[in-house]
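#struct-help
A.M.: can someone run this one for me? Single chain, 158 residues.
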Amino acid sequence: MFPQKITPFLWFDGEAEEAAELYTSLFPDSEITSIVRYGNEAEQIIGRPAGTAMTVSFKLAGQSFTALNGGPKYRFNAAVSFYISCKDQEEIDHYWYGLTKDGGEEGMCGWCKDKFGLSWQVVPEILPQLLSNPESANRVTQAFMGMKRLVVSELVKG
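D.P.: on it. C-alpha coordinates below:
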Protein backbone atom coordinates (compact mmCIF):
# COMPACT_ATOMS: atom_id res chain seq x y z
CA MET A 1 0.00 0.00 0.00
CA PHE A 2 1.32 3.42 -0.93
CA PRO A 3 1.40 6.14 1.73
CA GLN A 4 -1.17 8.87 1.49
CA LYS A 5 0.26 11.86 -0.38
CA ILE A 6 -1.51 14.59 1.62
CA THR A 7 -2.41 14.29 5.30
CA PRO A 8 -4.47 16.94 7.11
CA PHE A 9 -2.45 18.21 10.08
CA LEU A 10 -4.63 19.73 12.81
CA TRP A 11 -3.30 22.11 15.48
CA PHE A 12 -4.88 21.82 18.93
CA ASP A 13 -4.10 23.65 22.14
CA GLY A 14 -3.99 20.50 24.27
CA GLU A 15 -6.91 18.34 23.13
CA ALA A 16 -5.36 16.35 20.26
CA GLU A 17 -5.74 12.97 21.93
CA GLU A 18 -9.30 13.70 23.10
CA ALA A 19 -10.25 14.91 19.61
CA ALA A 20 -8.80 11.82 17.94
CA GLU A 21 -10.73 9.62 20.38
CA LEU A 22 -13.98 11.44 19.56
CA TYR A 23 -13.47 11.34 15.80
CA THR A 24 -12.44 7.68 15.70
CA SER A 25 -15.50 6.78 17.78
CA LEU A 26 -17.80 8.39 15.19
CA PHE A 27 -16.40 7.18 11.86
CA PRO A 28 -16.26 3.56 10.68
CA ASP A 29 -12.89 2.19 9.54
CA SER A 30 -11.16 4.51 12.01
CA GLU A 31 -8.39 4.11 14.55
CA ILE A 32 -5.65 5.92 16.41
CA THR A 33 -2.47 4.65 14.77
CA SER A 34 0.20 6.26 16.97
CA ILE A 35 0.78 8.76 19.74
CA VAL A 36 4.10 10.54 20.25
CA ARG A 37 4.37 11.95 23.76
CA TYR A 38 6.33 14.93 25.01
CA GLY A 39 9.48 14.04 26.96
CA ASN A 40 10.82 15.54 30.19
CA GLU A 41 12.33 18.56 28.45
CA ALA A 42 8.93 19.64 27.10
CA GLU A 43 7.73 21.09 30.38
CA GLN A 44 10.59 23.57 30.66
CA ILE A 45 10.85 24.38 26.96
CA ILE A 46 7.19 24.64 25.93
CA GLY A 47 5.18 24.14 29.10
CA ARG A 48 3.76 20.70 28.27
CA PRO A 49 4.01 18.06 30.99
CA ALA A 50 6.06 14.98 30.13
CA GLY A 51 3.85 12.18 28.91
CA THR A 52 1.18 14.34 27.32
CA ALA A 53 0.49 13.75 23.65
CA MET A 54 2.57 15.79 21.24
CA THR A 55 1.17 14.29 18.04
CA VAL A 56 -1.65 11.83 17.50
CA SER A 57 -1.89 10.04 14.16
CA PHE A 58 -5.25 8.53 13.30
CA LYS A 59 -7.45 7.38 10.45
CA LEU A 60 -11.03 8.40 9.79
CA ALA A 61 -12.86 6.26 7.25
CA GLY A 62 -9.42 5.17 6.01
CA GLN A 63 -8.12 8.78 5.59
CA SER A 64 -4.97 9.62 7.59
CA PHE A 65 -4.83 12.67 9.88
CA THR A 66 -2.31 13.99 12.37
CA ALA A 67 -3.18 16.16 15.36
CA LEU A 68 -0.62 18.28 17.22
CA ASN A 69 -0.88 19.72 20.71
CA GLY A 70 0.89 22.90 19.67
CA GLY A 71 -0.57 25.39 22.14
CA PRO A 72 -3.01 28.29 21.99
CA LYS A 73 -1.32 30.28 19.20
CA TYR A 74 -3.58 29.03 16.37
CA ARG A 75 -7.31 28.35 16.45
CA PHE A 76 -9.60 26.67 13.95
CA ASN A 77 -12.00 28.77 11.89
CA ALA A 78 -14.64 28.02 9.25
CA ALA A 79 -12.26 28.83 6.38
CA VAL A 80 -11.33 25.12 6.53
CA SER A 81 -13.93 22.43 7.12
CA PHE A 82 -14.39 18.72 6.55
CA TYR A 83 -17.27 17.62 4.33
CA ILE A 84 -19.05 14.41 5.33
CA SER A 85 -21.13 12.87 2.55
CA CYS A 86 -23.98 10.94 4.20
CA LYS A 87 -26.15 8.29 2.59
CA ASP A 88 -29.31 8.97 4.63
CA GLN A 89 -30.86 10.86 7.55
CA GLU A 90 -29.67 8.30 10.07
CA GLU A 91 -26.07 8.90 9.03
CA ILE A 92 -26.55 12.68 9.07
CA ASP A 93 -27.97 12.50 12.57
CA HIS A 94 -25.14 10.24 13.76
CA TYR A 95 -22.44 12.70 12.73
CA TRP A 96 -24.40 15.86 13.52
CA TYR A 97 -25.26 14.92 17.07
CA GLY A 98 -21.90 13.23 17.67
CA LEU A 99 -19.99 16.34 16.60
CA THR A 100 -22.20 18.95 18.28
CA LYS A 101 -22.56 17.26 21.67
CA ASP A 102 -20.73 18.47 24.78
CA GLY A 103 -19.97 22.00 23.61
CA GLY A 104 -20.15 21.77 19.83
CA GLU A 105 -22.17 24.33 17.88
CA GLU A 106 -24.87 23.99 15.26
CA GLY A 107 -24.41 26.24 12.26
CA MET A 108 -26.54 26.91 9.22
CA CYS A 109 -26.93 24.81 6.06
CA GLY A 110 -25.49 21.60 7.47
CA TRP A 111 -22.39 23.22 8.98
CA CYS A 112 -21.40 22.60 12.59
CA LYS A 113 -18.40 22.92 14.87
CA ASP A 114 -17.24 20.29 17.29
CA LYS A 115 -16.25 21.20 20.85
CA PHE A 116 -12.67 21.82 19.67
CA GLY A 117 -13.80 24.45 17.14
CA LEU A 118 -13.22 22.34 14.00
CA SER A 119 -15.85 22.94 11.31
CA TRP A 120 -17.71 20.13 9.59
CA GLN A 121 -20.29 20.00 6.81
CA VAL A 122 -22.74 17.14 7.32
CA VAL A 123 -24.47 16.74 3.97
CA PRO A 124 -26.66 14.13 2.28
CA GLU A 125 -24.95 12.63 -0.75
CA ILE A 126 -28.06 13.46 -2.83
CA LEU A 127 -27.69 17.24 -2.32
CA PRO A 128 -25.35 17.95 -5.28
CA GLN A 129 -27.75 16.09 -7.58
CA LEU A 130 -30.74 18.08 -6.28
CA LEU A 131 -28.86 21.36 -6.70
CA SER A 132 -27.76 20.54 -10.24
CA ASN A 133 -31.34 19.86 -11.37
CA PRO A 134 -32.86 23.15 -12.68
CA GLU A 135 -36.33 21.99 -11.63
CA SER A 136 -35.41 21.53 -7.95
CA ALA A 137 -32.38 23.79 -7.39
CA ASN A 138 -34.23 26.91 -6.23
CA ARG A 139 -36.60 25.03 -3.91
CA VAL A 140 -33.78 22.93 -2.44
CA THR A 141 -31.57 26.00 -1.93
CA GLN A 142 -34.38 27.81 -0.12
CA ALA A 143 -35.02 24.73 2.01
CA PHE A 144 -31.44 24.12 3.14
CA MET A 145 -30.76 27.83 3.72
CA GLY A 146 -33.38 27.69 6.47
CA MET A 147 -31.99 24.57 8.15
CA LYS A 148 -29.23 23.89 10.60
CA ARG A 149 -29.12 20.05 10.55
CA LEU A 150 -30.12 19.06 7.05
CA VAL A 151 -33.33 17.04 6.78
CA VAL A 152 -33.32 14.81 3.70
CA SER A 153 -37.11 14.44 3.49
CA GLU A 154 -37.50 18.23 3.31
CA LEU A 155 -34.83 18.53 0.62
CA VAL A 156 -36.26 15.84 -1.68
CA LYS A 157 -39.97 16.65 -1.44
CA GLY A 158 -41.44 18.66 -4.13
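A.M.: thanks! The chain has a mean pLDDT of 95.
D.P.: also worth noting: The longest helix spans residues 89-100.
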